């Protein structure tokens, strides 16, 4: 996949990278991280490709793809599930699961979703379908997450463009670190949620005792 994307992007440049990232955002099964890394590689190999401009193109492609999924859900609501493509991305069962996550963890789900291939598109689509999240909030949260992930992949490809074997080792290492951080964030979120529940029950217990007295 990496070699194919590098060759393809070499022929068509920024436009190819942007289009590929847009398709990633729409649920096409192309790895977004490898796409960004490939954009960084051609920036490191060819003088005509500027890595900073590639970063800007990467951010634009990522945000537009994510926004298309979110706004599609927001504009069409539950009707969008009549379309076979979107029904595959977000089945009724998965929609219910995503909604439960939103109720538990709030808008933080959107931030975490940016780092989760395979879950990103259905979560953004469900967020739009709920019509409870203003688009500006979505854009700020998704943009903040993209400003972390996109530069990492683009510059990683740029700095290790001449050694792809070592590069892929680093890609796997970075992915592992990201998943570890997300797991820690999830544990903290669960701990906070459980603490709030226990505190709420304890408070209700004290109120009941006061009423009995």
Walk me through what this model shows.
With 213 residues, this protein is mainly alpha-helical. It has 9 helices and no strands. It has helices at 2-25, 32-45, 51-76, 84-89, 92-105, 108-113, 120-130, 135-159, 164-212. Helix 1 runs parallel beside helix 3 and helix 2 (32-45) runs antiparallel to helix 3 (51-76). The mean pLDDT is 83.
Q: Which characteristics define this entry?
A:
mainly alpha, globular, 213 residues
Biggest sheet character: none
The total count of helices amounts to 9
Query: What's the overall geometry?
Result: globular
* End-to-end gap: 71 Å
Helix content: over 70%
Provide the succession of SSEs. HHHHHHHHH
By helix and strand content, what is the structural category? mainly alpha
Note the quaternary state here. Answer: single chain
- Mean pLDDT across the residues is 83
Low-confidence stretches: none
Question: Whole-number radius of gyration?
Answer: 21 Å
The count of β-strands is 0
Strand content: under 5%
Give the domain tally.
Answer: 1
Secondary structure layout plus pairing:
Layout lengths: L1 H24 L6 H14 L5 H26 L7 H6 L2 H14 L2 H6 L6 H11 L4 H25 L4 H49 L1
Would you summarize the structure shown here?
By secondary structure, this protein is mainly alpha-helical.
